[in-house]
Amino acid sequence: MSHLALLNISVFSNFVAFLLITFFLKKKEQRFLAAKVAITLSGLGALVSCVLLFQRFHLDIALTASVTWLKWNTGELLIGYYLDKVSLMMLTTVCVISFMVQMYSFWYMKDDAGIRRYYGTITFFSWAMIFFVVSIDLFGSYIFWELLGLASYLLIGFWHEKPEPRRAAIKAFIMTRFGDLGLLAAVILLLVKLKTVAIPVLITAAGTLLSPQEVFWIVVLLFLGVMGKSAQFPLHSWLPDAMEGPTPVSALIHSATMVAAGVYLLVRLFPLIAFSESAMTYILCIGALTSLIAAVMALTEKDMKRILAYSTVSQLGFMVMAIGAGAWQGGFFHLLTHAFFKSMLFLLAGYFIHMAHHSNDIFSMAKVSYGTKSKLMVALLWVGSLALCGLFPLSGFLSKETIFGSLMEGHHYGVYGVALLISFLTAYYTTRMAFIVSRNGEVVDAQENSLPLYMKISVSFLGLMTLIGFWIFLPALTEFFHLHSEWHAEQWVNFFITTIGVVLAIGVSYFYFGRKQATSEKGWVSFIPGLSGLIENKFFVDHFWKWVVDKGVYRFSRMSFWTDVHIINVIVDQVGLTAIRCGKKAAALQMGQVQQYIITAVVVSLFVVIYLIFGK
Amino acid sequence: MINDITPYLILSAALFCIGLYGLLARRSLIGILIATELILNAANINFLTFSRFMDVDKAVGQIFTLFVIALAAAEVAVGLSIVLVVYRNFNTINVEKMDHLKG
Known about the structure:
A: two-stranded parallel sheet; 26 helices; 4% strand; elongated; B: 3 helices
């Protein structure tokens, strides 16, 4: 089969599942069939995307296929595919993770009455992300970007009977929409300036056609969209709240879809972004700030899913920071590795929450006694956590090392220090979570029955990818990401610095939480005055937004209301009244005397005749 | 004299002016209708005159006149019935009294 046909299959398999579920499998007793259809089709998509990866990765030419969708005299919009190495890798990652998550969800959601709706939405979600990844036109990307927002809204608010998911869904939707305005503005600006927003044009020629000033503003607007989607400070606060959705959804949102979209967009348009030094610095600062703040907020969190959510925000900030420092390969590599181990961690969180009788609290998980059947899950939890720390030889190490390496080579020593601090904090709070969760308590869990094979497969596959998956692909990746195939002194120094940092953090975490007699809940954070309060109030970001809405949006809308009533209404009324008054005046001419009308008519026609005869 | 256009036109103009005067001065609806007839006939004479003295197809003016006569007959029929209805409703046919539509 041609590569285009393969691409079509992998892009549309999820969409076909969505259509089938929506229009044909409507009955309640067909809900498991619907789930199976979704899993089968997304499995097919994942398989085909892997085939595509192996067949195309060594090719340097991008696969493009597009039709003109809208054309006017000064520009055009396309719709179609642009599949180069970047989008190919992302495509495979998204397809595979989406498949794994859907497979896992069957175990997680099988007792939920809304399982059909769940699979309908999640296939739609995956499809939107997949098409976003391969879209050739930035405007097409924007459409799917918005569809992603819609689907995530539906999934976060999946349990809409409860108030918190509803609120979280609305919060996520509004905050990301706020950012999307910026993206839309950037797309329109590009369209006005360049007459086209086709991605191949943007990444090859755009920088030379625009002045650095223009690039700066476009990138700033574009980055506003990224801040919304990829949860960058100060638009990050929707992501921890998005934990209200079903856990597999969090796994998908936090790894390969939704939040990955923002970072992916930066990677995609990196050649354009790189034309503006100041925009890069701006991105770098926001990324570093986000990463640091989120890492700090995760330090004392007790909700397992929120810890993971903060770690996602932190890691996303890390990637954005790397891209801002010019190390887009490192950022993108980290996006890929992070997608696998973070989705696994979330799936595991789903398992542990199940074990702890549907409590997200890591301390209630600590009370559960894990038998032999949970061995695999606990082991995988450690694999995922250590990958998140970036410990050798897990996949997180590879990508994190790439970022550190390029930071060092680029002589960004300040950023290097910040990254080191973040890496230290990450290792600390991640292992804190893992230590506490894997404690063996006394409470015997109720669900000690054996887990279905497909659930184990999905989690283990992700674990396998974290353990050795990226080492298998390393030769190919080395070439693409410009990794060092041979290590010199610089790389060894880098390796030791980062590893020592991580090991130190794990040691601290062991001291507070790992030992048998450990009772601490917050660790060393409680020794630093003010920090606890700051974390409890989430750095006042939510307060800030509430203040913005209260003082800004509400005040503005009240002002608009006042203007409407007292100014615009008065003007409109006066216009209407004037018309009525003029009408009254004119009506007086209508005196009701037919013969006077006739006189008028005769006199006027007399004048007309005179004009016609003598007027020339 | 019979080959001179002027007397015919003077006759026609006189008829038109009398008709116009009647149209404007009469208060009775019947009077106004009669005045309208005069104006129409003034137009008829004009048609016939120009048809006779100009170098055109002689049939044109005569056919037009016939049309106008037929139209005038129809107009009188409609007009008189309107007058009747007006009289029934207002008990008068004085046009100055009929100003119900004024603004």
